[in-house]
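Saturday, quiet lab. Running sequence design on the structure tokens for the scaffold JK sent over.
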């Protein structure tokens, strides 16, 4: 901006209350000074580089405001976890399934996992069957993002919520 633009002889000038065109760098700086604004380089790779006459501090403020608004609109993805044992009985399974449905309806991702303690690792198939059964029963609320995968003593599966209209 302003005196930091040195490597060029002429620039394409844009901005409010300015006739758009190619000007010598000194003339562009003079125009900016007359309006008590800053000459800011917008597109340095263009030939000639594009500069705009604006209030730089106000420009930075507006830019921060836009970024903050975009950040506020961005959806924050929450991940809820549900833990099963390899031999979880039917009542516990139904209870945890109700919670899973609620989490998916609230728009949170679901991380369902079977935790194998000690020698229960021999029941890997039971754990996988349990997770696949859960995925099948939650089909109308979400879709499986990652199929059951064994990581250490845990078999993990991710389910993402379906988009609600």
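Result came back. Writing it out in full:
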């Amino acid at each position: 901006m302003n005196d930091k633009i040195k490597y060029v002889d002429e620039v394409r000038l844009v901005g409010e209350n300015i006739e758009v065109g190619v000007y010598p760098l000194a003339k562009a700086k003079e125009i900016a000074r007359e309006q008590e604004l800053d000459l800011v380089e917008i597109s340095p790779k263009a030939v000639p580089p594009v500069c705009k006459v604006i209030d730089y501090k106000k420009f930075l403020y507006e830019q921060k405001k836009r970024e903050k608004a975009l950040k506020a609109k961005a959806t924050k993805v929450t991940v809820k976890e549900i833990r099963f044992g390899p031999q979880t009985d039917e009542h516990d399974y139904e209870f945890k399934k109700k919670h899973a449905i609620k989490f998916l309806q609230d728009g949170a991702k679901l991380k369902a996992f079977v935790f194998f303690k000690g020698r229960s690792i021999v029941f890997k198939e039971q754990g996988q069957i349990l997770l696949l059964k859960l995925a099948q029963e939650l089909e109308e609320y979400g879709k499986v993002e990652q199929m059951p995968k064994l990581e250490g003593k845990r078999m993990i599966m991710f389910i993402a919520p379906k988009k609600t209209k």
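Notes for JK: Helices lie at 25-34, 56-73, 90-105, 124-137. Residues 56-73 form the longest helix (18 residues). Ask whether to fix the surface positions before the next round.
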